[in-house]
Write a structure and sequence with these properties.
This protein has about 100 residues and is an alpha+beta fold. Helix content is about 35%, strand content about 30%. A four-stranded antiparallel β-sheet has the order 2-3-1-4. It is globular and about 35 Å long. The N and C termini lie far apart (about 25 Å). InterPro entries: Dimeric_a/b-barrel, Sec-metab_biosynth-assoc, YCII. This is YCII-related domain-containing protein. Belongs to the YciI family.
Length: about 100
């Protein structure tokens, strides 16, 4: 089942930059293991959206909690909701690192 996590980041740009490489490595690992569907920051830098593939909400919450940003207390708030993919077009996705 898919779970969308709407995450608000702490207002600590220096620490976010410091932990970003570990955060991205963690997400890449989840992606390769089929545990992450899609992820990316909001354009205003206030947070990000993560869509996890998990058996239940508790497992999705654990995936979020193990993120290096979360471990460094850079997740100021998180809202997790079950999510259903209805429409998608990979033609409209541009990956920007």
């Amino acid at each position: 089942m898919k779970f969308a996590a709407f995450v608000e980041y702490a207002n600590e740009p220096e620490r976010i930059a410091q932990f970003r490489p570990a955060h991205r490595a963690y997400l890449q690992d989840l992606l390769q293991r089929g545990r992450l569907v899609i992820a990316g920051p909001f354009a205003d830098g206030s947070g990000a959206l993560f869509v996890y593939e998990a058996a239940n909400e508790s497992e999705a919450a654990r995936l979020a909690a193990n993120d290096p940003f979360a471990q460094a207390s850079l997740f100021k708030g998180i809202v997790m909701k079950p999510w259903k993919l209805v429409f998608a077009s990979t033609d409209n996705l541009t990956i920007a690192l």
